[in-house]
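Example 187.
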Amino acid sequence: MAPTLSIPPLTKDLSRILIDADTISRRVDELAHKIDEKYKDLDEPLILVGVLKGSFIFMADLSRKLTIKHIVDFIAISSYGEKGDKRGEVRLLMDTRENLADHHVLIVEDILDSGNTLSYLIKTFKSRGVKSIETAVFLDKPERHEIDVPVEYVGFEIPDVWVVGYGLDYKEQYRTLPYIAEMYPKK
Ligand code: XMP
Ligand code: MG
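Predicted structure in complex with xanthosine-5'-monophosphate:
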């Protein structure tokens, strides 16, 4: 019997679906293929470092579509807007389990906004002596960039609106929606 697909409906906070689940799945396939191609001749495992919490679903899907040898790891950071941190300030709350020195690393992030988070992480990991570092972001808001950050793999470019679903949240809600939805602007 075919499984019944149930798509959770939009709630009063969400205005529209920006990217549906099938489109997400096809794009993650493409990104995984590009990453496979880039690292296919590597003798050692690539270390994927996901930025918690927003990247956890993208990481789960992307890592399962890779055919190259890889290790999944995570970090947690706190950025502006959380616990009263200043704009542009990024703090490491939880480090990786793996020692990244002398390894090839791919940062896996949910969304590129100002660029502060990725710029901080790239600088931090380089100072630890990684062999190489690249970045995969599921979403990119080009209008919001404040710092130039090299990003090798981008899922989708989106306008400057608050989005939820596929790992992204509003006050910890909506992370498990299978699509990316746009929120109504908060008054
Ligand atoms: P920066 O500015 O450092 O920020 O590039 C990246 C972080 O900002 C958060 N962010 C969002 N989270 N919906 C979310 O759920 C959004 O539309 C959004 N825009 C930015 C996110 O934590 C990301 O890692
Ligand atoms: Mg994040």
